[in-house]
Design a protein that fits this description.
Length: about 475
């Protein structure tokens, strides 16, 4: 077992993987002008493990030795709270953008651990040790692990086997004595371009005729036949002064194609057992939405902090309506944080694994997503129109224009034009840029959409008890 350095992580990505950006094959993701930013961003995880300030949070040392805390199977509320703190700390280091190269992969490993134990108890024993062996392999080699779950889906009104062509969902096309061959594609696969392993999970419950689609497995990122087509969103060159977050931080998503990829038996975690496809999908979400809310906390901190700072810079901090808006941002952040901490504290233990309270996790995620656009509106209102009309970085550098910028764009006490513009550019990058649009779409769709969160909350809430209480008081 050995923790990897940043350079060892980077070197591991030079493995011949098939990554495409705007139609061109990427020969080395480290050196690509866009994907290279994502590699640098992902390196935060390995830097934190080496940093004395973070080492106690980032690592654990138990009977298995010293390894990244992400790989620690949570056994109690304390483990979940420590995981939440690590995710939030890494996201703060990422300037509100989650790192995700271990968070999402271990969410999947925990879900597989729980469902694998259930399957073993039901007499399907072959998967449990495979799952545990793969977990150990990822942990002991300090790997970056992505998850491919969301299928292309085609006609959403139809199930996997009823589609007008068979590859809208990833499926088994051949079964061999030593493994399977899979075909299809997954969408929205985050951090895949710079991960070492890809875990593939079902995206939904399956019926009997969907047997070929009830499959879970893991493959290395350079597996023959695996192709990653990277999204170009937010890939235009950016000046660090004008875009202080997105010029330095990037996360890639891909259309992940399985073009007859062979998977050996030891890496197969579900093969046709349709009754467990939905259980894997749902259990993964129970962990991953907890991760999602944990990494939203620094984003909400910045919304409140940026709103306060720019109000001070604008000289409006004493205005009653400004304080009202800042209170709304503070309440928003505090509510989401309180919900997710309570979700950890009121966890359930299933198959020896601590699972965050599902109702509270989904309510926290829904509250975040439902209110995010309103928070953006508040911060933009506090900042003012200079978010999109301010001069450029070059205007501050030019002898012909700098004096005018500095003379006319100063603000409240202690804020000259440059300091004020830096704050405005930070808020603009967060709320009024392609990165801001990316964050707004993530708020709605990442880790499951609004309706999925509402449905899960409805299922988990104890309506029977409260309805019985209402009937009793009504004398019914």
């Amino acid at each position: 077992m050995a923790l990897r350095t940043v350079e060892q992580y980077r070197d591991s990505l030079r493995d011949g993987r098939a990554v495409y950006f705007r139609g061109e094959r990427v020969r080395d993701v480290n050196n690509h002008p866009v994907i290279g930013l994502a590699v640098e961003h992902a390196s935060i995880d390995y830097r934190m493990a080496e940093d004395p300030h973070f080492r106690g949070l980032a690592l654990v040392n138990d009977g298995a030795g010293e390894y990244s805390r992400y790989f620690q199977i949570p056994r109690n509320a304390g483990d979940l709270l420590a995981r939440k703190d690590l995710i939030a700390a890494a996201t703060r280091e990422g300037a509100t953008l989650v790192v995700l190269i271990k968070e999402i992969g271990t969410d999947a490993l925990f879900a597989l651990e729980v469902v694998g134990a259930r399957m073993a108890a039901a007499g399907i024993a072959k998967y449990q040790e495979r799952i545990r062996a793969f977990h150990r392999y990822c942990r002991d080699n300090d790997l970056a692990v992505a998850v491919a779950q969301t299928d292309a889906k085609g006609d959403r009104a139809l199930g996997p086997a009823a589609q007008n062509h068979p590859d809208y969902y990833v499926r088994i096309v051949e079964e061999r004595p030593d493994g399977i061959v899979v075909r299809g594609a997954k969408v929205h696969t985050s951090v895949s371009t710079n991960a070492n392993e890809i875990i593939v999970l079902p995206t939904r419950a399956m019926k009997a005729d969907d047997r070929a689609y009830a499959v879970a497995f893991a493959v290395p990122a350079n597996a023959p036949g695996l192709k990653m087509i990277a999204s170009p969103h937010g890939s235009s060159p950016k000046d660090p002064f004008e875009h202080p977050i997105s010029a330095r931080h990037k996360m890639m998503e891909t259309l992940t194609v399985f073009d007859d990829v062979f998977v050996p038996n030891e890496r197969i975690f579900l093969q046709g057992e349709v009754d467990y496809a939905g259980a894997i999908a749902l259990t993964f979400v129970r962990f991953h939405r907890f991760t999602a809310v944990s990494y939203k906390l620094p984003l909400l901190e910045l919304m409140a902090g940026g709103g306060h700072a720019i109000s001070e810079a604008n000289g409006t901090l004493r205005a009653g309506h400004v304080r009202d808006k800042l209170t709304q941002l503070a309440a928003y952040h505090t509510t989401v944080r309180g919900l997710i901490e309570h979700a950890a504290s009121s966890c359930t233990i299933e198959e020896g694994v601590a699972i965050p309270n599902t109702l509270l996790t989904n309510v926290a995620k829904y509250h975040f997503a439902h209110n995010y656009h309103q928070a953006v509106q508040i911060v933009q209102d506090l900042a003012g129109g200079l978010l999109v009309t301010a001069p450029a970085a070059e205007d501050l550098a030019s002898e012909a224009t700098r004096d005018y910028v500095m003379r006319y764009l100063g603000g409240g006490a202690g804020y000259d034009a440059e300091r004020r513009l830096r704050l405005l550019n930070l808020i603009g990058d967060l709320t009024a840029s392609d990165f801001g649009g990316y964050q707004e779409v993530l708020a709605v769709h990442a880790e499951g959409g609004l309706e999925a969160e509402k449905l899960q909350a409805y299922r988990e809430y104890d309506f029977k008890s409260v309805a019985d209480y209402a009937r009793r008081l009504a004398g019914v």
